Amino acid sequence: MQTIENLLQELKEKYEQLKMGGGLKKIQSHKAKGKLTARERIEYLIDKDTKYIEFGLFAGDGMYEEEGGCPNGGCVCIIGFVSGKMCVIVSNDATVKAGAWFPISAKKNLRAQEIAMENRLPIVYLVDSAGIYLPLQSEVFADKEHFGRIFRNNAQMSSIGIPQVAAIMGSCVAGGAYLPIMSDYALIVEGSGSVFLAGSYLVKSSIGEDIDNETLGGATTHCEISGVTDNKFPNDEACLDEIRNIFDKMGHFDKAGFDKKESFLPIKDPNEIYSILPADRGKPYDMVEIIERIVDNSEFDQYKKGYGQTILCGLARIDGWAVGIVANQRKIVKSKKGEMQMGGVIYSDSADKAARFIMNCNQQKIPLVFLQDVTGFMVGSRSEHGGIIKDGAKMVNAMANSVVPKFTFIVGNSYGAGNYAMCGKAYDPRLIYSWVTGQMAVMSGASAAKTLVQIQTATLKSKGIVIDEIEENELLDKITDRYNSQLSPYFAASNLWTDGVIDPLETRKIISMGIEAANHAPITKRYNVGVIQT
Length: 534
Hints:
By secondary structure, the protein is an alpha/beta fold. About 40% of the residues lie in helices and about 20% in strands. Strands 1, 2, 3, 4, 5, 6, 7 and 8 form an eight-stranded mixed sheet that branches. Helix 4 packs parallel to helix 5 (about 150-160), helix 13 (about 350-365) runs parallel beside helix 15 (about 390-400) and helix 17 (about 445-460) crosses helix 18 (about 470-485). Its EC number is 6.4.1.3. This is Propionyl-CoA carboxylase beta chain.
């Protein structure tokens, strides 16, 4: 069993590797053209010495290996500050297949736009992309959540007044040409930036015209002849300076009105989380001790403390922001009815409590934070006869219809319907991150593997094939290894089921910046849970 220190070291190594994008040779070739890398562009643009959140870092990790891979999904995405204004920045990484769009690239860019739209944040596109990666075009071109959705979102963001600023800093080809031109501002870098529906080779082959790319769609052409772009700049730095000038003049935003007071650090040492939280996901611990190392002054005001104890609910502040916390208790508890309840399991009483607390937070305009370490809902005749399904449905209903922003962290297990009730990705958390100790699946690796082995051995037996105990154990090991690899927090993050994998100590920053972002979007929808099963 790995220690948390080992898991944190693995995270650090993965991060350092992924920061290299397409690799050192590609970076050197890119910079030889006088261009900044995707990350350098972001570092130059954002306000110095300010916090930022990266999301989608692990997108595509371990995917498309037969195509040479697509680290970071081919782009870098952050929430940060430009001229004092919070915004989303999307920076194409031309060291990864010339910035071409893989299926995961489209998914990541759509996630960036979703974050901008939900929080009404301005968005900056630093464009340097060869367009759709043609060998995989069928997986990225025509469906609802494919490449074309990007431009639909461009139009919708414009219609609701979300500022969009685009800088063409490299190739901008075919359908991708619409992204910067549908933005409010379209800037272009001389010599390296170009934008056209078809490049010179395709123009030659389709209509016979012989023309070079610069004349066809370079900075001078589009700033002085077509009027497609607004202004041209001699280099990346000058172009990025202009974006800062644009942001400097933007007006202020309407606020949602979430409550914030002076920030205080936790009194209890956050570093102690590493020793409290067991690396072995089957071992119990007290989630209250974790919470008290995240919240301001280590103050956590519990709601219905003695009732439904396998879910902790309560009010606190994080970096000054008022929050409502819903967390799975992982230690074994005893109800006043004398029932021993397993930690990490949702019982009828805990689901009932959580539903009521979630409704209270919506009534009082308090953002919700979910800390997941859940193995699922309690099963068996006692639970079924007690109405566990309707109580679970009540909790899901209250959570799913929330109008206040929700933020989810996978601290440990995230299994089955427990993932849903505790605000998994399907329930629109504004941000969702996994700690290095997180794992997500329908059920635990051991349970799933044993079930799958039973199914496979029964299937073989029906065909007259009987396997001995040694063969069955080999099959179990093989299935367990495969299933456990899919439990990894990096597997979830590579598929963008989460926004990333983090050190637990980053949790406060993400919640604080997440609520600050959400405060840009006034709540206009009335909270209504609809039909509640009682």
